[in-house]
Specification:
The chain is mainly α. It is about 75% helix and about 5% strand. α2 packs antiparallel against α3 and α9 runs antiparallel to α14 (about 320-345).
Length: about 650
Amino acid sequence: MYLCAVLAPFLGSALAGLFGRLLGARGSGCVTILGLFTSMVFSLLIYYDISLMGAPVLLDLGSWFSAGSVHVSWILNIDLLSAVIMVTVSTVSFCVHVYSLGYMMVDPHLPRFLSYLSLFTGSMLLLVTLSDFVTMLVGWEMIGVCSYLLIGFWFHRLSLTKAAQKAVLVNRVSDTGLLVGLMSAWWYLGSTDFSILYNTSTACAYADLICYTILIGLLGKSAQIGLHVWLADLMEGPTPVSALIHALTLVTLGVYLILRTSALWELSTNARTVLLFVGLVTSLMALTLGLVQNDLKRVILYSTCSQLGYMMVSCGLSAYSLAIYHLLTHACFKALLFLGAGVLIHATADVQDLRRQGGAHGALPWAWCCLFLGSLSLMGWPFLAGYYSKDAILELCWLTPTPGGAYSYFILMTVALFTSAYSFRVLILTFMAPSNSRRTEVSHTGLPYTMGSSLVILAIGSIFAGYLFNDSLVGWGSGFFSTSIINGPLTVQAVSSHMMPVLYTYLPLLTVPIGFVLAYSFLWPLPYCADTGLRTVYKFLMARWHFDFVWNTHVLKPVLDLGTYTWAIVDKGILEILGPRGLRNTILERAVPLVRAMQTGTVHDYALMLQIAVIAGLFLYALPNLYESMLSSMAFARALTVAIMLLVLAP
């Protein structure tokens, strides 16, 4: 059962990818959906089994390699943390697969698309169950490869091809930091096994080093500030890809990595402070960018960045269980938002521009209900999924007795306010405002049952997931993750003893009506851009804080210039002379003519050459051992022999 839950998506991917032409679009869909359904059912059984036992299950699949003190084996460590993520990943991915059958049915390459989706899901399941840093990198890199394939699926679009390449290159930068962290863990701890990290209890300087390198590694995958630039460029791709990447899988890998190495983070106060700062700045950046975007999917994308900031703040304040709880609820309502937006885009001739939407309330009631429900859950409306996890993080910040907690509460409340603003702006422009679409883009009614059934499942999760998992994951006195996540003795009491006055718990609720007023007053930015200062700010935000300009001008251009010099000096210089091509030219242009000139056909010349060769051989025989011979009793024996032979050969 445990192994089938991980391998079922790989089997579906192999069948759809290798035999897609024989199975056809519907056959490939049935095979991949059956694999995901099997994985989802087994994941639920695993969650039930492990939550009752409270102990992880280890499956040793054999040794991979051994080199010196490094011994790496394929071991599946399925604990409570893995079980929760497996349930979430398999369920959301199952809904995305079913949705893709309706959304991508007219695409002639649907089997290949479904194969990529299943491979992506299987890689995620493999990553969260492996017990070693080295084997985890296999799943980590497989997810990176699958993201490249999915982002660039419509390879005939140049923009998507460039977006896929950009995603790979940016993630290569962060993956380098993760690789350094892996080598640091092996150097200082003697092993890369997560169980060794879990039992580490000594606060040393190497804990800071490992945590900083892990932080660099997660900046790219989790789209945190600085290395988030790849995320916005893939919004032209298929909507199921956006839902799967941004709801749960790729962008949440950083959160999982922090949770898995929580023991090290508890030993490094400095690293947790930096993590807190990164989460706060990312949330602020995302809210400012989400306010001015006119692309429907990009607005939802930047809300993902802000919610990832919430998770990073929770980890920075040592509330790791809150981070996984918000990850679970966020997966439900964010997948619902993306797939609901996909219904709207699919019905309006693939138009994503909010300025060309409007009036879709009557024609697309399903899309209206899904986007409205998902947006309310994102805002933290009472008793929806996002309400429980989001308000819990705000409460954590309020009652953390450090300056970082107070700053976090103020910034995250600001983020919550403007999240409500741009969420209502999307709803008003797409459904309530008068239609601005062309005649060929008018919303048409109708929804395939495959798309509708997926939306129903995710809508149920967006309503009830927060309530159902609240007590078990983050309830009072809950030790659900005690075998998977560790809190230091100095932070356990601070995390578990939060009490907040009832009056202050209503403050997050006020952000919803205030956000509606802000959204209604900022539907169109043109009236405000008449002011020079506001126009400058608007252009700055539309340029996405000029991160792309900074990367291209101050990072990529110097690197390319350096590459020009190294190409001229090393490639065309040193390697041309000492490399294979240089040696070939030297032999052909110098050595070969010299040897050819020696071939005179005269016996005297050949005898002279033989004499020179013998004399050189004698010198090579005598000189290397001359010093040793002088130290022995036969000091001059070899030298005398050589001198006599030279006298004989000299004439």
